[in-house]
């Protein structure tokens, strides 16, 4: 402890120095000696994730399903989960919520990281996930198809999505399903659940109104739009295995699958089955969904 | 805003709204009334909505809640409080570099807790103690039994501080020199929710103790002690911190002035309960049995006493205003753990309760 005593004597000096940005060299050398003793780091708490060497996709999913790597129940999460699986990226899933996301919405991917390197902890948001999948995947995936794709993507992003939002979030028949998926896992407190449910429904309503540019929501109109969109998708798929005559399924296939799978999924207790009934009129879309499911979840990993 | 004597019985209603950099916004309201016209027995009802930026763990915490408290004081000045509080906490607004641990704890949780507080103040001047002692204990029980909520734990904290005046031989009257010491400890024990059939969840980021900073362990940044994931301070389930300081009046100003020179050494240790059953599943931290919680807490408590605590020492100037105490300290760390954030150099502290 003799150097401690020296340190004590030397201390008041920098306060006298008017310019403390340039610490004199002998003082700087002395400062460098502190701390005199450094122990190894503290251990992390029990809830800290152990797995850091594998990329982790944060999605809406139950904890049990996340362990098994099962499909998420949220279309945008499922879209990227499917895409990364199709791209052959090795990743694990973690159940999460929108508060964890850098963009305010799931999913996002945390690349493999080391705790001491904060840059490696930067999450990858959805707008960069396609590139990440193409860079880190194994098989060759079809490149983006440009404007033709965009036209069909907008069918999914608007017509099908609006009908989905209405069916899950606003249709009273599916209120129990919505509560089970999004509200029950967040908290056990009734008033908080009611508040979150209200916020969620309100957000869904705003999304639909923004997308349709109308003053009120017209369910018949939304469902008609969804049916037309399914017909168009069925037409463009034709009798091919994957969309746009591609040899392997790509991002667009994953996007279509994210809706068709959830609409047809028996594990979700749909009470309002309008979308399900529509989709069954297009067997080619149903078998497309089955092909993707087999490729991603049924072929031995 | 403060309204006194609303119904003519020494009730008061106070409402506060504030905004700032760390506490982005805070709104609170409290209604307090004496019971049986006894000024030493008060019942108060309060509500709170706040948003606090916590840069040491890369997030923002939104709180909405309310509580009911019963305060009573004895003739000798000892104060007691029992209360219930229910709070909806939202951990949100994460920084881009937030660690996986903070991302994992983001989201909603509800704390429903009963608290018990005891405080004995026997110091001559709490802002600049020359003699006497104080003792404060806080106990909180959350989520157990019929309380409900999403988090279950018992959380106890104890603080003891004391000071003795040092007379100068040969001079009459108080010298103004004193030696003080303080000790704080706390323990957070995870309990199962309701009646314990589902196992206990390990503690969350916003329930654990943060240690370090200009008003507790000086020479460390806010939350600078304890486990860290990258740059994020995660807090500990068990902590102990102590300090020794000597207050000396400024030459020529004398012992009656509110200024003192302070020599101090303080240190502490903050340890989180780690998961004993290391497995490869991501959800391993979700549920623990009673015996694994006990084992985890025992090993964490043992870890607190392993090796030297993290220590810093230094010298500074203290100004004790009646409302708050101001400190400007120069300190150097002596012992740290890797990753802990110590400060070499100057640190400013403003507060009412220093270690």
Automatic annotation (TrEMBL), chain A:
Top-level taxonomic group: Eukaryota
InterPro entries from the UniProt entry: Metaxin_GST, Mito_Protein_Transport_Metaxin, Thioredoxin-like_fold
GO biological process: mitochondrion organization
Metaxin glutathione S-transferase domain location: 226-292
Xref: Pfam families: GST_C_6 (PF17171), GST_N_4 (PF17172)
Domain Thioredoxin-like fold positions: 75-174
One GO CC term on file: SAM complex
Family annotation (PANTHER family): METAXIN RELATED, OUTER MEMBRANE PROTEIN (SAM35), PUTATIVE (AFU_ORTHOLOGUE AFUA_1G13180)-RELATED
Protein name: Thioredoxin-like fold domain-containing protein
Automatic annotation (TrEMBL), chain B:
InterPro entries the record matches: Bac_surfAg_D15 (IPR000184), D15-like (IPR039910)
Location of the protein in the cell: Mitochondrion outer membrane
Membrane topology value: Multi-pass membrane protein
Keywords: Membrane, Transmembrane, Transmembrane beta strand
Domain Bacterial surface antigen (D15): 5-354
GO cellular component term, pick one: mitochondrial outer membrane
Main localization, broad class: mitochondrion
GO BP annotations listed: protein insertion into mitochondrial outer membrane
Source organism superkingdom: Eukaryota
Similarity annotation: Belongs to the SAM50/omp85 family.
The protein's name in its UniProt record: Bacterial surface antigen (D15) domain-containing protein
């Amino acid at each position: 402890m003799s150097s401690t005593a020296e340190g004590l004597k030397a201390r008041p000096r920098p306060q006298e120095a008017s310019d403390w940005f340039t610490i004199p060299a002998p003082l700087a050398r002395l400062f460098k000696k502190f701390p005199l003793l450094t122990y190894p780091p503290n251990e992390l708490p029990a809830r800290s994730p152990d797995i850091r060497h594998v990329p982790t996709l944060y999605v809406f999913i139950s904890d049990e399903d996340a362990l098994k790597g099962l499909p998420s129940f949220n279309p945008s999460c499922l879209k990227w989960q499917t895409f990364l699986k199709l791209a052959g990226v090795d990743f694990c899933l973690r159940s999460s919520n929108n508060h964890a996301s850098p963009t305010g919405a799931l999913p996002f991917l945390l690349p493999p990281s080391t705790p001491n390197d904060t840059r490696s902890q930067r999450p990858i948001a959805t707008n960069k996930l396609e590139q990440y999948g193409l860079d880190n995947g194994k098989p060759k995936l079809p490149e983006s198809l440009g404007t033709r794709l965009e036209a069909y993507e907008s069918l999914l992003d608007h017509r099908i999505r609006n009908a989905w939002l209405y069916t899950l979030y606003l249709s009273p028949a599916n209120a129990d399903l919505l509560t089970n998926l999004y509200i029950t896992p967040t908290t056990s407190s009734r008033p908080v659940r009611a508040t979150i449910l209200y916020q969620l429904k309100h957000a869904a309503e705003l999304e639909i109104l923004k997308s349709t540019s109308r003053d009120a929501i017209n369910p018949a109109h939304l469902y008609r739009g969804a049916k037309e969109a399914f017909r168009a998708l069925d037409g463009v798929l034709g009798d091919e295995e994957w969309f746009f005559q591609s040899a392997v399924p790509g991002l667009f296939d994953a996007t279509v699958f994210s809706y068709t799978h959830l609409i047809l999924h028996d594990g979700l207790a749909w009470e309002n089955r309008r979308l399900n009934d529509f989709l069954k009129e297009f067997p080619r879309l149903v078998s497309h969904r089955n092909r993707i499911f087999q490729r991603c979840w049924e072929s031995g990993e | 805003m403060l309204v006194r004597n609303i119904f003519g019985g020494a009730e008061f209603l106070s409402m506060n709204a504030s905004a700032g950099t760390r506490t982005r916004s805070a709104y609170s309201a409290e209604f307090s009334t004496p019971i049986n016209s006894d000024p030493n027995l008060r019942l108060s009802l309060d509500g709170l909505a706040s948003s606090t930026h916590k840069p040491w763990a890369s997030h923002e915490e939104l709180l909405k809640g309310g509580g009911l408290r019963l305060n009573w004081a004895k003739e000798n000045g000892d104060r007691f409080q029992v209360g219930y509080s229910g709070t909806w906490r939202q951990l949100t607004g994460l920084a881009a570099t937030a660690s996986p641990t903070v991302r994992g704890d983001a989201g909603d949780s509800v704390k429903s807790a009963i608290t018990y507080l005891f405080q004995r103040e026997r110091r001559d001047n709490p802002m600049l103690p020359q003699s006497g002692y104080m003792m404060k204990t806080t106990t909180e029980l959350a989520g157990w039994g019929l309380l409900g909520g999403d988090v279950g734990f018992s959380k106890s904290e104890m603080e003891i501080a004391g000071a003795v005046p040092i007379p100068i031989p040969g001079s009459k009257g108080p010298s103004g020199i004193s030696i003080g010491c303080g000790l704080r400890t706390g323990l957070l024990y995870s309990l199962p929710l309701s009646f314990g059939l589902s196992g206990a969840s390990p503690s969350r980021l916003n329930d654990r103790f943060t240690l370090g900073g200009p008003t507790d362990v000086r020479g460390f940044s806010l939350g600078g002690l304890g486990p860290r994931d990258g740059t994020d301070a995660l807090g500990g389930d068990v902590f102990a911190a102590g300090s020794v300081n000597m207050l000396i009046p400024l030459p020529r100003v004398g012992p009656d002035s509110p200024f003192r020179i302070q020599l101090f050494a303080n240190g502490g240790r903050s340890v989180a309960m780690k998961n004993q059953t290391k497995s490869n599943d991501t959800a391993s931290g979700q549920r623990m049995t009673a015996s694994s919680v006990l084992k985890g807490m025992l090993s964490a408590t043992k870890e607190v006493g392993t090796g030297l605590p993290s220590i810093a020492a230094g010298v500074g100037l203290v100004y004790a205003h009646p409302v708050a105490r101001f400190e400007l300290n120069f300190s150097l760390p002596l012992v740290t753990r890797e990753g802990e954030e110590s400060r070499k150099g100057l640190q400013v502290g403003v507060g009412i309760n220093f270690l």
